[in-house]
Amino acid sequence: MGLLSGKKALILGVANDRSIAWGISKAFHQEGAELGFTFLGEALEKRVRPLAESIGSKFIFPCDVSQDDQINQLFQAVAKQWGKFDILVHAIAFANKDELGGFFYNTSRPGFHLALDISAYSLIAVTRPAVPLLNPGGSIITLTYYGSEKVVPNYNIMGVAKAALEASVRYLAYDLGPQQIRVNAISAGPIKTLAASGVSGFKSMLKASETTTPLKRNVSQDEVGSTALYLASSLASGVTGEIIFVDAGANIIGMQLDKEN
Ligand code: NAD
Ligand code: 0WE
Predict the structure, then answer these.
(1) Among 33, 46, 105, 128, whose Cα sits 20 to 30 Å from the Cα of 234?
(2) pTM score
C-alpha cells in the first residue's frame, strides 16, 4: 500500500521533465496516486503528454490560469472524469523577463498586475472551483521562494508576488480548515528548471549555494517531491497554513564568514 493509494492528484505546472511539478508527480505516482495534468499552450502539450502517459495518466487538459473560462472548463472536466479528488498542486509563476532585473522601482503597473495575477491570484482562482470537488483530508500545495521574505537581487516583483502567495496560503488554510482541507507552500532553494533558465546569473546562484548552505549543496526536484508527498499524505494531517523550506538550510543563515573557524 502506497502513502497515496486510491488518491487522485491534479498537477498544474509541468512544462518538462525538469519541472519541480514533475518531481512532485513522480513522488506521488510512486506512492500509488492517480494523476491528472494541465499544460499551458500547444507547445507544452507536446512535452507534457508523453510524461503524463509514461505514468499511466489519462487526464491531460489545457489551462492558462489567467483565463477564467479555461479554469472553469478544467474543473468541469475534473468533475466529469473523477468526481471528487484529493490533492491540488499549484507550481506556476510568471513575470515579464524585463521586470526580473534592474531597479525594483521601475516595476510597471502592467508588469505588477501580470506577475501577481499569474503567480499569486491564480492559487485563489483554482482553489475556488476545486473546493466542492476536494474530499475531506484533501491537500493543496503551492511553490514559493525565499525572495518573498528577504531581498534576492533581481527577483524584484516576483518577491512581492510570492509574499502575496504565502499570505494567500494562510487565508485559504483558515477558510478550508473546517472542511479538513489543508493548504501549504514549499519554499524551494534554487533549482535549474525552464523558469530558472531564463534568469541571468542563475548559475552563480547555484554555485553560491554549494558553499553557503548548511548542507553545502543544492536541492533537487525529487527532494521537493518527497516533501510534497509528505504534505499530500495523512502524515501531515495536522499541518496547514505552513511554509516549509526545502532549501538545504539556506534560510537559517544570518551571516556568512569567509572561513569556517
Ligand atoms: P517550470 O518552468 O518548470 O514551471 C513553471 C510552470 O508555470 C510551467 O509549467 C509554465 O507552463 C507554468 N505557467 C506559467 N504561466 C502560466 C499560465 N498563465 N497558466 C498556466 N501555467 C503557467 O519552473 P519551476 O521552477 O518548476 O517552477 C514551478 C514553481 O516553483 C513556480 O511557482 C516557481 O516560482 C517555484 N519555485 C522555483 C524555484 C526554482 O529555483 N526553480 C525555486 C523556488 C520556487
Ligand atoms: O520563481 C522562480 C522563477 C520565476 C520566474 C522566472 C522567469 C524567467 C523567464 C518567473 N517568470 C519568469 N519569466 C521569464 O520570462 N524562481 C524562484 C527561480 C528564480 O528566478 C529568479 C531567481 C530565482 C531563484 C529571478 C531573479 C533572481 C533569482
Answers:
(1) 128
(2) 0.98
